[in-house]
UniProtKB/TrEMBL annotation:
The lineage of its organism: Bacteria, Pseudomonadati, Pseudomonadota, Alphaproteobacteria, Rhodospirillales. This is Antitoxin. Antitoxin component of a type II toxin-antitoxin (TA) system. InterPro entries: Antitoxin_Phd/YefM, YefM-like_sf. Transmembrane segments: none annotated. Belongs to the phD/YefM antitoxin family.
């Protein structure tokens, strides 16, 4: 992914957007610091639909036999 300074991105915004639509996103920098990313709307939609790991775990169909039996033994004394 290429980096482009903010002032250059403003001067060439149409070209930066065209590149993003063609699958070439750009990192916008200001004073040498990465500030933003320009990417296509289609790519943004795709990325925004990715569920979090927690949501994936919560949606997993589990049967009672899927998990190992719980060990009910008391924790041993670690001598602390």
């Amino acid at each position: 992914m290429r980096e482009i300074q903010l002032r250059d991105a403003k001067a060439r915004l149409s070209a930066v957007v065209d590149d993003a639509v063609r699958g070439e996103p750009a990192i916008i920098t200001r004073h040498g610091k990465r500030e933003a990313v320009v990417l296509s709307f289609a790519e943004w939609e795709r990325l925004s639909q990715v569920p979090s790991f927690g949501r994936l775990l919560m949606s997993a169909p589990l049967a009672p036999d899927d998990l190992p039996p719980r060990n009910e033994a008391p924790l041993r004394d670690a001598g602390l």
